[in-house]
């Protein structure tokens, strides 16, 4: 490959800079096929994120809101299937298996997820009426969550880079599907320019007030909760169903495994805001935040790093 390459956190040379994004070698073909071939339908919903930003949570919430007229919370498929099985990821699941998967059989609204930067999404997603719901998380918790995952799996038994070595890379934007600032800024700007197209959510806001964010999601999708639903407690039921403790304790998420081989439990660690402080030194955090703030300066996008 002639693309610029860097070592990933596992210390193997396997991140390639493809259209401005650091893509693991295992995903390159899938990313390319998805970006070239996927044809969106106007009724599609795309859950977009940087990994470890709360994608699992947003998948569960979006699925529950969008399909609530089909399944009530007591019969929700989330009780027996991982949010990742119900809302498959283009890059990691669908186009990894097959460079041109047949996705037409899924009933509308089809709900998929993507880790691609906004500008790299297929034209049909950007130009059709389909909706994009994006979740971003403060960069310190995002990075710690990712680092903990890599540590847990020690993929292929290769020695991991030290936290210092990883941090040096992160500060240059060299991490899986980074740079962080490019992906968040792309969706942030798109949400300001086209608020009917992109809804920009923050993990920390969802933790603080899930009810008003559920209402926001439903309104954005064009299916606001009715007064009757509100009176019946439908929003609270969805928030309970999708809560960290509830999802994590379901049998499927405790012991199930995704077709990709990832244990469902790996998507549920602590689910907190500010856990970074248990892992990063104050100077590491300060340096990284300074870099991110410089990159985002003038955009109006800010983060909360504690609850
Ligand atoms: P932590 O590692 O900080 O605990 P993603 O889904 O994008 O991979 O993000 C995973 C992060 O979201 C993990 O963060 C995980 O614990 C947290 N998470 C998963 N489900 C959640 C939920 N229902 N509510 C809040 N956080 C959740």
UniProtKB/TrEMBL annotation:
EC number: 2.8.2.-
Protein name: Sulfotransferase
Alphabetized Gene3D superfamilies for the sequence: P-loop containing nucleotide triphosphate hydrolases
Superkingdom assignment: Eukaryota
Family note: Belongs to the sulfotransferase 1 family.
GO molecular function terms attached to this record: sulfotransferase activity
Boundaries of every Sulfotransferase domain copy: 42-300
Keywords of the record: Transferase
Organism: Populus euphratica (Euphrates poplar)
Coiled coil residues, start to end: none
Top EC group: transferase
């Amino acid at each position: 490959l002639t693309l610029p390459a860097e070592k990933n956190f596992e210390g193997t040379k396997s991140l390639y800079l493809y259209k401005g994004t650091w893509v693991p070698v295992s995903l390159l073909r899938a990313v390319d096929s998805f970006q070239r071939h996927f044809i969106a339908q106007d009724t599609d919903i795309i859950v977009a994120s940087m990994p470890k930003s709360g994608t699992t949570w947003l998948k569960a919430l979006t699925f529950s809101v969008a399909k609530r007229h089909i399944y009530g919370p007591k019969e929700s498929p989330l009780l027996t299937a991982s949010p990742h099985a119900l809302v498959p990821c283009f890059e990691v699941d669908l186009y990894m298996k097959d460079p041109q998967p047949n996705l037409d059989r899924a009933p509308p609204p089809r709900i998929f997820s993507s880790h691609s930067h906004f500008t790299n999404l297929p034209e049909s997603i950007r130009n059709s009426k389909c909706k994009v719901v994006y979740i971003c998380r403060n960069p310190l918790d995002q990075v710690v969550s990712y680092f903990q995952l890599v540590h847990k799996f020690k993929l292929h038994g290769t020695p991991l880079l030290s936290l210092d070595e990883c941090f040096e890379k992160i500060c240059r934007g060299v991490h899986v599907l980074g740079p962080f600032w490019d992906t968040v800024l792309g969706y942030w700007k798109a949400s300001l320019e086209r608020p009917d197209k992109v809804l920009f959510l923050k993990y920390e806001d969802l933790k603080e007030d899930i009810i008003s964010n559920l209402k926001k999601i439903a309104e954005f999708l064009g299916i606001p909760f009715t007064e009757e639903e509100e009176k019946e407690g439908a929003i609270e039921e969805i928030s309970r169903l999708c809560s960290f403790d509830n999802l994590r304790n379901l049998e499927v998420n405790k012991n199930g495994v995704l077709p990709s081989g990832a244990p469902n439990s790996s998507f549920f660690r602590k689910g907190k805001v500010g856990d970074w402080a248990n892992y990063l030194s104050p100077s590491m955090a300060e340096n990284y935040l300074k870099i991110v703030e410089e990159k985002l300066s003038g955009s109006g996008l800010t983060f909360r790093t504690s609850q």
